[in-house]
């Protein structure tokens, strides 16, 4: 069962979707950063699967409560505005993290963040702050551009990048730049690349050239994700 909860992010009111596991807790928490389209049924299904594994799963929102169910051009405009102001994006992500830390039933010492597409960038950006408030971050068919907000702090969170090698939005050169960045920041990182797989490989509705669902990569990436969560929360 999914419940919603509002939280402040600067002058914006955002809306989280929370899937709670059975029992009293406290539970390890997994923040989920959505794709360019904002919170959707796809990420809510992921939240419910993770809650079934015993995690408090929290789908976050960086566009605001009034910016739900956006048309593609509207979603693109919202994302582009945040990509042009990575400090604002960072502030909204840290507001979401603070909300999750204070959520009833969450063990604040055991929090991870995962993200899909634009949300993969969001997951990396939280780790890039150098915060020790998360144990790990996972990017699934994410994009990688660094925030350009000054010298990179040491990254303390463990990182997992789940990537389609033929992703037109994250080329092999982009992957190499990311790995150099993470190595320079002293991060404990790992990369799983899936051959002959493009962007959006976890989305059954994706069917465009270079952006298409891949059942094997979807299955393998979820197994890698859950194995990673079990490791960092142990």
From TrEMBL:
Dienelactone hydrolase domain residues: 15-232
One MF term from GO for this chain?
A: hydrolase activity
Give the highest taxon in the source lineage: Bacteria
What organism is this sequence from?
Answer: Sphingomonas changnyeongensis
* Record's protein name: Dienelactone hydrolase domain-containing protein
């Amino acid at each position: 069962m999914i419940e919603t909860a509002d939280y402040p992010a600067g002058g914006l009111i955002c809306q989280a979707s929370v899937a709670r596991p059975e029992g009293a807790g406290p539970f390890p928490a997994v923040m989920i950063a959505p794709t360019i389209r904002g919170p959707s049924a796809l990420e809510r299904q992921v939240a419910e699967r993770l809650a079934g594994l015993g995690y408090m799963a929290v789908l976050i929102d960086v566009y605001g409560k009034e910016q739900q169910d956006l048309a593609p051009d509207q979603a693109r405009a919202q994302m582009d505005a945040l990509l042009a102001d990575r400090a604002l994006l960072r502030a909204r992500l840290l507001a979401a993290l603070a909300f999750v830390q204070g959520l009833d039933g969450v063990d604040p010492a055991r929090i991870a963040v995962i993200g899909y597409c634009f949300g993969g960038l969001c997951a990396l950006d939280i780790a890039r702050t150098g915060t020790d408030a998360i144990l790990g971050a996972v990017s699934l068919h994410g994009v990688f551009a660094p925030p350009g907000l000054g010298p990179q702090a040491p990254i303390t969170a463990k990182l997992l990048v789940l990537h389609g090698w033929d992703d037109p939005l994250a080329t092999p050169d982009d992957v190499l730049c990311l790995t150099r960045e993470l190595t320079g920041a002293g991060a404990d990182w790992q990369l799983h690349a899936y051959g002959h797989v493009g962007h959006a490989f976890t989305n059954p509705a994706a069917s465009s050239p270079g952006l298409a669902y891949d059942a094997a990569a979807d299955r393998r990436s979820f197994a890698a994700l859950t194995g990673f969560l079990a490791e960092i929360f142990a």
